[in-house]
Specification:
Layout (H helix, E strand, L loop, with lengths): L2 H6 L9 E6 L8 E3 L15 E7 L5 E7 L7 E7 L11 E10 L7 E9 L17 E6 L13 E6 L2 E2 L6 E8 L11 E10 L6 E15 L14 E3 L12 E4 L5 H6 L6 E5 L11 E5 L16 E5 L2 H4 L2 H4 L1 E3 L2 E3 L18 E3 L8 E2 L12 E4 L5 E2 L1 H5 L6 E4 L9 E2 L11 E7 L2 E6 L10 E6 H8 L4 E5 L13 H10 L5 E7 L13 E4 L19 E6 L1 H4 L5 E3 L3 E4 L6 E8 L8 E7 L7 E5 L3 E3 L6 E8 L8 E8 L9 E7 L6 H67 L5 E5 H5 L14 E4 L2 H9 L3 E7 L12 H15 L7 E5 H4 L5 H9 L1 H7 L2 E5 L3 E2 L6 E2 L1 H4 L3 H14 L4 E5 L2 E4 L5 H6 L8 H4 L9 H18 L6 H7 L3 H4 L3 E6 L6 E6 L4 H13 L40 H18 L47
Parallel strand pairs: 10-11, 20-21, 21-23, 22-24, 23-25, 35-42, 45-46, 45-47, 47-50
Antiparallel strand pairs: 1-13, 2-5, 3-4, 4-13, 5-12, 6-9, 6-13, 7-8, 7-12, 8-11, 14-18, 15-17, 16-17, 16-18, 19-20, 26-28, 27-28, 29-33, 30-32, 31-32, 31-33, 34-36, 36-40, 37-39, 37-41, 38-40, 41-42, 43-44, 43-46, 48-49, 50-51, 52-53
Length: 1126
């Protein structure tokens, strides 16, 4: 008789069990074994993950000897069967696997026993019967890690309810990304296979052990109930809205999220636990369980960064009983100063007062925390409390007086007074319980903008919008941006993307026409907005013809803004240099709140100004907050500007910045003082008149002489400006036509063997070096395939601390191999390996070549899965990737030359092509409004901004597009032409320093270089026999500027033509040379016209399709060119 039948009878008096076998393990015939092959990679990429040996015993059981360890992408071994027909378990309540541990694993706690059911209900064809059944849906259960450490030798059972879905608390969880993508619900009637697996998440030595299995069966009438799919935890409560930082956990069980409650219950220290249901098979990121003995305020994180779900344990044995851990006297339970980590459980003591103050570790209070306190009248909460569940307060008797310990509160998940603020800026005002207002979170959904929508009847629409200047009209047949016509929300999103768009109108709503008709699909952008949009009537639901219209955040900002009720605040001796001003909102935010931080535009010598409160949070237009401003060390009269920095979830409130003036007076404002100032003013005017008459005659004589000198100087400066602009135009074309540094790549086999991304210097012996674009083209002709990988660093000092990006990069390389390209012919470029890291000068040269590198490769892959930054704790994903200026430049470079062909993006959902209307691409085109590390650091030592290094490459690409605007680049030019002023700004704001020491200045970026390029191309396209027009006076771009520490930037020459000497001009030329060395070599101008006669003819300056330059001013001879840069 089989041993497992005895196991079923161990419980005396047990009721009859009706069961149907799935496998009796009488024989090992037909059982398949997997040691890592399941993920479909070759052994050179995915080494074996262990071994499994099977032996059928004389008792009709199966002995399993296993060894397992994490290797490369995976760490599991498994055995199982697959059938052509289902082992129907439709009426069963659950599944039961009977087993025992013969030899505990050699490394305790490393490996977990898992049970997987294969659902064939969504599978068709012969492949369904092929092991390992990955064409079917797969549902997984992980046991506790201690199951394989059992040394008792007793028979045990895994018992799970026969139901499964995507919920992490389901008995069997659908494994995303594995198997067929069916309906996501386990069908007991369609079980076509199973796996029994051993899973390790440790990359160390193999763990080995032996178990024996007796039966796998579905049970219809169990002697004990099975867990149901919607079973809630019994010993803990879910804390809605709380997200815990995984780093604060004292214990983490990878893969143990389904048994996290049991794991916590077995550990006396555990008073909170959290689960993380994120799964990524490529990166071996498995759902996990995290245990916490205490929390700090910083351990509660925003939803995007924290763990999925947090649970509050309400077991009195762990929390402690009220009067055992607190002082109970009369009717008061004094728990103050007890260093509590959780709220004690109620006892029979009839407490009317509960004091929880002075407990800095008590930062979270979950549901049922106050159960049993039925007589409570007063409750004092600790000032450091960051999160409290509304359910906990609702359980209190009605009328309880709830207060918070006095003291400054950090932002949290609730408000107790108007001085408080939510930690999450996307929290709006929610329910109010016991005087506490809770967060009403509105998530920041990608692609959804904070636009105001209104449905108008068609005649009202025409009355308001017909007088407005149209910007563009988009239909489903438009060659670009056609997705905007699909809905009003997408029309709004594209309007928000276009800086010139002030209003939009979406689809036409006609009940007589289908919603998907071309008539209904339309998106129009307008260059201005109706002034009476708010007063326009909304169309009724039954309107015959109507249209969706709206305003983007930039237009809403006219009303949706912070308003200071006083524009000038006076500070004087009379008020002790202390006064107040009120802040309010001009409109209600669409979501979340608005945070306002007052600051001075510049520091006023030794004077100090303070604002109380230093930061204000406003959540509706009805709230007015008073801010007190005080000045100390006042030595003279000043009128500084107060800038109200705004941070809001609703984008409209950050479009415009409100300011006010401080009128700081040292005098008391008396009449005597005023008269004294007037007398001095009159005396000054008289003195000025006399002086003017005295020097007037001399001035007239000097002006006559100066006019002649000015004319000569102006002519010379214009010549030099023309030559300077020409140098920049030619340098831009050179920058994108040839590498400015060596092109280093890794061979495909060397890249997939990497276990982490390592610096360039460690890989020198394995890198291939290409000196020119021609060398790369030759290698391509010989069969080499180049893959350019672009990603965002996940740490300050290392690009990929946990190997998440590397795994996705390897997957991308394998996808290229899957197209038929031999791995040996793949060449991979990735920043940290291909760019020198130790030599700063060589690094800068390589960085300046990034656009050329990106546009030269066969494939361009964006790697941007959802990962938390190691140092900031912030979420890094495709949204943060495309916010980076350098990432945008790489995408822009590839798209400008190659279109979207060969461009891919890798996220948590895998690898997919980058579409022409993809948000990543559309946002990346706006390179010069992306974020940069140098700007975040405040440009230490007044170093140039990286935006300046991008000017020449982006200018060169635009020159190529403009030159071919009527040919292969027609579509690209149609995208850039309407927004070129936005994408290629003439100036930018350069900020140096931080905080009060920050200095912001407006500096030249592109200047007139875009117009200069277009002029040069137009001249080359003109009739060769046409007379040359006079050259416009174009101003140079940023490479014609130089910045010195603590000095203002030089202005362009057109603002100083009247007073700039020859010496100053030559200094400018030398600074051009220095700046241009940072961005690559600059070729000497050879095409400046040599005469100024009106009969000049076009001699053909455009060689091999390259734009060039001509000027009507005389050329500076080479031997008189000073330092060699005209």
């Amino acid at each position: 008789m089989k041993l497992y039948t005895c196991f079923a009878c161990l419980a005396a008096g047990a009721s009859a069990v009706i069961a149907r076998p799935i496998d009796t393990f009488d024989s090992k015939e037909g059982i398949g074994v997997d040691t890592g092959q399941i993920i479909g990679l070759p052994p050179s990429v995915q080494p074996p993950t262990g071994s499994i040996d099977l032996e059928a015993t004389a008792d009709g059981t199966l002995r399993i000897d296993y060894s397992v360890a994490e290797r490369a992408y995976y760490g599991g071994v498994a055995l199982g069967r697959a059938w052509n027909e289902s082992r129907g378990c439709g009426n069963a309540a659950g599944v039961e696997l009977t087993y025992r541990v013969l030899e505990p694993q050699s490394r305790p706690g490393v490996a977990k026993l898992s049970l997987v059911l294969v659902d064939g209900s969504d599978c068709a064809g012969a492949a369904c019967a092929t092991w390992p059944g990955i064409t079917n849906e797969i549902y997984l259960f992980f046991t506790l890690g201690t199951n394989l450490d059992d040394a008792s030798g007793e028979w045990r059972a895994i018992r799970r309810g026969l139901c499964g879905d995507l919920s992490p608390r389901s008995p069997f969880v659908r494994v995303p990304g594995w198997g067929a993508q069916g309906n996501g619900v386990l069908d007991g009637d369609s079980i076509t296979g199973y796996w029994i697996g051993f899973r390790s998440f440790d990359r160390g030595e193999f763990t080995t052990g032996t178990i024996e299995v007796a039966s796998l069966r579905c049970v219809e009438s169990p002697d004990e109930p099975f867990d149901s799919c919607d079973a809630a935890p019994r010993s803990a409560s879910l804390v809605e809205g709380a997200r815990l930082a995984p780093a604060a956990a004292y214990s983490t069980d990878v893969g143990g999220y389904q048994t996290c409650e049991e794991y916590c219950a077995a550990d006396a220290r555990c008073v909170y636990y959290a689960t993380d249901s994120r799964f990524n098979a490529v990166t071996s990121q498995f759902p996990s369980c995290h245990l916490f003995a205490e929390l700090r305020a910083q351990d509660l994180e925003p939803a995007a960064a924290g763990l999925d779900e947090a649970f509050f344990v309400h077991d009195p044995a762990k929390r402690g009983v009220l009067c055992d851990v607190c002082a109970c006297s009369g009717s008061t339970a004094d728990c103050s100063g007890r260093n509590l980590a959780t709220v004690p459980a109620a006892s029979e003591f009839p407490a009317t007062t509960l004091d929880l103050s002075d407990n800095p570790r008590l930062v979270l209070i979950g549901p049922r925390a106050f159960d049993g306190l039925d007589a409570l009248e007063r409750l004092t909460l600790p000032v450091g409390l960051a999160h409290i569940s509304p359910e906990a307060l609702r359980a209190l008797p009605e009328g309880v007086d709830v207060s918070v310990e006095p003291g400054p509160r950090e932002p949290g998940s609730f408000l107790f007074s108007t001085a408080d603020a939510f930690e999450d800026k996307c929290c709006g005002l929610g329910d109010s319980v016991g005087g506490i207002t809770f967060c009403n979170p509105v998530p920041d959904v990608p692609g959804v903008v904070d636009a105001e929508f209104k449905k108008m009847e068609l005649d009202v629409f025409h009355e308001l919008f017909d007088p407005l200047p149209p910007l563009m009209t988009i239909t489903p047949d438009s060659p670009f941006l056609s997705e905007a016509a699909e809905s009003a929300s997408k029309c709004a999103a594209y309007c928000d993307f276009n800086e010139a768009c002030q209003a939009f109108s979406g689809e036409i709503l006609d009940p007589a026409r289908p919603a998907d008709s071309p008539y209904a699909k339309l998106c129009q952008h307008w260059a201005s907005a109706p002034s009476n949009f708010a007063e326009a009537p909304t169309a009724p639901e039954d309107a015959e013809l109507s249209r969706m219209t709206g305003l983007p955040p930039r237009t809403r900002a006219r009303n949706a803004r912070v308003v200071a009720t006083q524009k000038v605040v006076e500070l004087s001796k009379a008020n002790g240099y202390t006064s107040t001003f009120d802040l309010r909102l001009g409109a209600n935010p669409l979501r979340g709140g608005v945070r306002v931080t007052p600051r001075l535009d510049v520091v006023k010598e030794n004077m100090q100004f303070t604002f109380d409160p230093p930061r204000v949070a406003l959540y509706n237009a009805d709230t007015i907050v008073t801010v007190t401003v005080a000045a100390t060390n006042v030595e003279r009269t000043v009128t500084p500007t107060v800038i109200l920095d705004t941070d809001a979830c609703d984008a409209a409130f950050v479009e415009e910045t409100e300011t006010l003036k401080l009128d700081v007076r040292t005098e008391d404002g008396s009449n005597n003082s005023s008269n004294k100032h007037k007398r001095r003013a009159r005396q000054g005017v008289l003195a000025a008149i006399v002086t003017s008459i005295a020097v007037g005659c001399l001035g007239l004589a000097w002006l006559a002489l100066a006019a002649r000198r000015y004319a000569r100087r102006k002519e010379k400066l214009e010549t030099e400006r023309a030559a300077l602009v020409q140098e920049q135009v030619l340098a831009a074309q050179t920058c994108v036509s040839e590498f400015q540094s060596h092109f280093h790549v890794l061979k495909g086999p060397d890249f997939v063997e990497l276990t982490k991304l390592v610096p360039h210097e460690y890989l020198r012996d394995r890198l291939l070096v290409f000196d020119s674009v021609a060398d790369v083209r030759a290698a391509m002709a010989a069969g080499d395939v180049f893959v350019f990988i672009s990603h965002q660093w996940l740490g300050w000092s290392e690009p990929d601390p946990d190997g998440v990006h590397l795994a996705a990069m390897k997957q991308a390389v394998q996808s290229v191999v899957a197209t038929g390209v031999p791995l040996e012919r793949v060449r991979v470029w990735v920043d940290v390996a291909s760019i020198p890291q130790a030599n700063r000068a060589a690094q800068k040269m390589a960085i300046s070549s990034l656009p050329c590198f990106a546009s030269t490769s066969n494939f361009f892959v964006v790697v941007s899965p959802d990962v938390v930054h190691k140092d900031t704790g912030c979420l890094c994903n495709s949204r943060t990737y495309r916010s980076r200026a350098w990432c945008r430049a790489e995408i822009m470079s590839c798209w400008a030359r190659n279109g979207t062909e060969g461009m891919f993006v890798s996220t948590n959902q895998g690898l997919r092509p980058l579409a022409a209307n993809d948000a990543i691409l559309l946002e990346a085109l706006d390179v010069f409004h992306g974020e940069l590390t140098c700007c975040r650091r405040g440009h230490p030592n007044a170093d140039p901004c990286d935006l300046e290094a991008l000017v020449l490459p982006m200018l060169g690409l635009y020159a190529e597009i403009f030159r071919d605007r009527h040919g292969v680049a027609a579509e690209a030019y149609s995208v850039l032409e309407p927004v070129k002023d936005q994408f290629y700004p003439k100036t930018f704001t350069y900020r140096c320093g931080h905080g009060a020491a920050e200095v912001a200045e407006e500096h030249v970026l592109f200047g007139d270089l875009i117009a200069a390029v277009e002029f040069a191309v137009a001249m080359d396209e003109a009739d060769p026999d046409a007379a040359v027009r006079r050259l416009p006076d174009f101003g140079p771009g940023t490479n014609g500027q130089r910045r010195h520490k603590h000095l203002h930037a030089l202005r362009t020459l057109d603002t100083k033509r009247t007073d700039v000497s020859i010496t100053r001009t030559l200094r400018l030329q030398r600074s051009v040379s220095n700046d241009e060395h940072r961005s690559g070599p600059v070729r000497r101008s050879t095409s400046v016209a040599s005469t100024r006669t009106k009969s000049m003819r076009r001699p053909g300056w455009l060689a091999r399709g390259r734009s060039s330059w001509r000027a009507s001013a005389p050329r500076i001879p080479a031997d008189d060119a000073g330092d060699g840069h005209a």
